[in-house]
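Hello forum,

I keep getting stuck at the same step: I have a sequence, I want structure tokens, and every attempt I make locally crashes halfway through. Rather than fight my setup again tonight, could one of you with a working pipeline run this one for me? It's a single chain of 556 residues.
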Amino acid sequence: MKRREFVRTALTAGLASTAASAGAAVAAPSASGPGGQGSGKKPRLMYYDDSRHSSIYIYEPPMLKEEFEASVDDLVGTPVDALMFGLGDGRTVLHDTKVGELWGDPVKEWTHIIFRRAHQNARMMIDSGGDPLRIVCERARAKGLAIYPSLFLNRGRGKERRNDVRSANFTWENQHLEIGAGGDLDESFPGLRKLDFKHQEVRDERFALIEEVLKNYPIDGFELLFGHYHYFHPKEVDAGRPLMTAWVKRIHDALKAGGADRELVVRVPVSLEEANSRGLDVREWIDRGMVEVVIGESYSHRMDQLADFRPMVEAAQNRDCRVHAVIQPEVHSDRLDNGTIEFIRAVACNYWAQGIEGLYLSQWFTAYPYRAEFYAQLREISHPDIMTAKDKFYYVPTRQRATGPQMPLPKTLKVNQPVKTHLLVSDDLPRWDKIGRVHEVLLRFRLSSATETDRVEFRFNGKKLPKSSLRKINRVYRMRAPRFRVFGYWYVYRLPRDHWPMQGKNQAEVTLHHRDDDIIPELALKDVEIEVKYLDGKNFARGQDPDTGPYRVWST
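Reply #2:
Ran it on my machine without issues. Output:
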């Protein structure tokens, strides 16, 4: 049986309506507002699904219509207002494009079986008369969920065509359009093989792919995923900035031509200075009304409880533009991959306190298959007033590998040279303490390569921490760990009230006073954490209290 015949036989009867609509002329997308409901409600909680990891990668070919729809169905009934749906790799896509290139179509031999599976599932659905993107868009509309396709704008190419099976022929056939085409950049420059947006051909290729989606799919907006990529040669950023602004304006005009309520969303570095250094004049876009939502992103794949959104919020003040904050779920410590609900509460409350108007949940699909805690996090995350007196876990981001973005920790400790870092804490502890709701506050420091003979002093907000509140934990060697091993000592303080953290910025300080001379490895401040624990009511029990455990004794 030929592949096309096999797919037609295997797909459910429910595909017929989708296939029919795909073959017919596409009506102008509804301009009734997000979700097609006509309410005019603006999304407060946006959820990014890259269309791959929890979808097209995991199903055996051929995928059913219902399996594509699961990207929507998994969010129905949650507080998520908008699905930000990734268009494949960005260079190649996973929908029925006529102007771009389908993921994997040029590939003859596959070096990556998961990427091959993505191609199979997309190609088989399209060959059968369906379209993965249309299925998702129509399902979102049917379930009242706003839908915003999202495009990676400049992924670039790899070193070898054979190993870069997701890239497009356009990128390989137009290497003269790359940022590094002049040969004057070091091989280590991260934008070397990315397309240079100074070229009209590059901007036109990207625009054509976007315009096709704007014209042919029932959408509520579109996301330009700028991220932390490079778009111009470092020496030509100033000249490129107005070119990029004009290009964004062109997209905004095309978007609005299909419906006045449709929104242009841009995901950019949370630092406006960093964005500007990449050729992205976000302030200008806001001032000129070219974007409806600006998404600020700190690290690409790590939670950052210290991210500062205030300059972005200030830039959007009194403008017709909303600022959303990206929350990444990944902690990536030796104990955790994704953060627990206590981490999520802490980062969300820190962000809401800065005046943002919404949250953007990126990479949360890594929790798939979704369990009860995932949905519990979604239920609370939009409501700082609900999270305020619930357990939270604050921490300073720490770098685990030599590669990747720079982070506040670790920091090397030298004798008699204080090392400082800070944490943001949103809790109003005095308020909740007055009514007996605060259970305890723990402050933890971990020093890597520490020994029992090190003499170290710890201060918090300028006050020396009392030894009477300290518990020291020996982890100089451990046989195993939940994820990977980190050696050293933990210094854990159960903070008395006069040492509790303040709302806002808190400073932690560590000073090494003695280190044995025969030790070569340097001592480093690896982790700083604050855990705030609450009672559900005055004098309520906690989980560790005797009468709440598995051996309850009930009075008669």
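Residues 1-38, 551-556 have pLDDT under 50 and may be disordered. If your local run keeps crashing, start a new thread with the error log.
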